Amino acid sequence: MNYLAHLHLARHSPQAMLGAMLGDFVFGRAALADWPPPVRTEIVVHRRVDRYTDSHPVVEAARALFPDGLRRYAGIALDVYYDHCLARDWPRYCEVPLEAFSAAAYAALLQDPDALPERLRRIAPLMAAHDWLGSYRHRDSVDLAVTRIAGRLSRNGERLVACLPQLRLHEHAIAAGFDAFYPQLQAYVAQLRAEGMA
50 CB contacts (<8 Å, ≥6 apart)? Predict the structure, then answer.
């Protein structure tokens, strides 16, 4: 899952949305102590969502559609594409309009920029200025986001970009997989919360 899905799965308070974003920028158990409980909870949820997603049979089947040399990178492309699927069908999953939801997420991120890890502090204003979350409604944003991510990889960025034609080739099957998978992911997060684990 990429940014939009993590935010959607979080509790929709400013601290929870911040925690949902921090999951990709805060590492290790010790680092959790630096954040208040609502933020810390959503960082943990983010990590569990990533583990659940990576091991889910639907996601494994989607990765298997890519050639051997690209499967390691296909997961990144799928994460971004799943955000597109979520944004495209947003009213199906959320009563709050995407524009309002995105604005709340940007406000949560920009509330105290100095508290953010350096990499998130750099990208948060860009996310808001260019409406990264809302832009996922448009299919071309997937290619743009994946290409941007590839440029930030320390090596083999070209392999991630090479996933894009394969994504187009299998798009119908991957989108159908998302439609089956995402409600299961929502149920998993709800169960975590019901059991007091999040």
Answer: 1, 23
Burial of 159 (0-12, 13-18, 19+ CB in 10 A): middle
Q: Look up tokens 């995105």; give the residue.
A: 102
pLDDT in tens, 51-65: 999 999 999 999 999
DSSP 84: H
d(CA 106, CA 124) in angstroms, rounded, equals: 7
Distance CA 198, CA 189 (A): 8
Q: Could you give the CA distance from residue 171 to residue 121 in angstroms, rounded to a whole number?
A: 33
Token pair 């990208």: residue: 123
CA distance readout (Å), 82 to 89, 154, 168, 174, 179: 11, 24, 13, 9, 9
As separate numbers, helices (DSSP H) first and strands (DSSP E) second, the chain gives 13, 0
pLDDT tens profile 114-168: 999 999 999 999 999 999 999 999 999 999 999 999 988 778 889 999 999 999 9
Average pLDDT over residues 12-35: 89
